[in-house]
Amino acid sequence: MAIVRTRKFYRENEDCVVVKYTQTPFVPARIYGPPEDCHPAEGGEVELIEARVDGKRVNWDEAEEDQWITDIMENPDEDDGPDADDLRDAAWERDQ
Q1: Quick one: which of 64, 69, 82 has its CA closest to 26?
Q2: Number of separate helices (H) and strands (E) present in the chain
Q3: Which of 14, 42, 66, 78 is the S-S candidate for 27 at Cβ 3.0 to 4.6 Å?
Q4: Mind listing the pLDDT tens digit for each residue in 40-66?
Q5: In which domain, by residue range, is 53 found?
């Protein structure tokens, strides 16, 4: 299930762009234990839905999309839930 989020970015002309996007929860890989319990990492995909400047929809180019998605993936929202390390640790502790 994808989560809808928003984040602010600033363009070179100093416009504040509010980007709405979806992000699927990240499930870390399990590479230990019996083969039937192992699985690859899943999720974490980001898809941009819309961008607005001063409440008006705007378009974005490929370079902005790459930059925004990279920033979203490298700097997850701290207050929206656990990060990938927390999920991995919880999965490891659960499986012990």
Answers
A1: 82
A2: 2, 4
A3: 42
A4: 988 888 999 999 999 999 999 999 999
A5: 3-95
On the question of pLDDT at 84 being above 80, the answer is no
User: CA 88, CA 4: separation in Å to the nearest integer?
Assistant: 22
Phi and psi of 4, rounded to 5°?
A: -90, 130
Burial pattern 17-29, b for ≥16 Cβ within 10 A else e, equals bebebebeebbbe
Number of domains composing the chain: 1
* CATH number of the domain residue 77 falls in: 3.30.300.260
The model carries a pTM of: 0.68
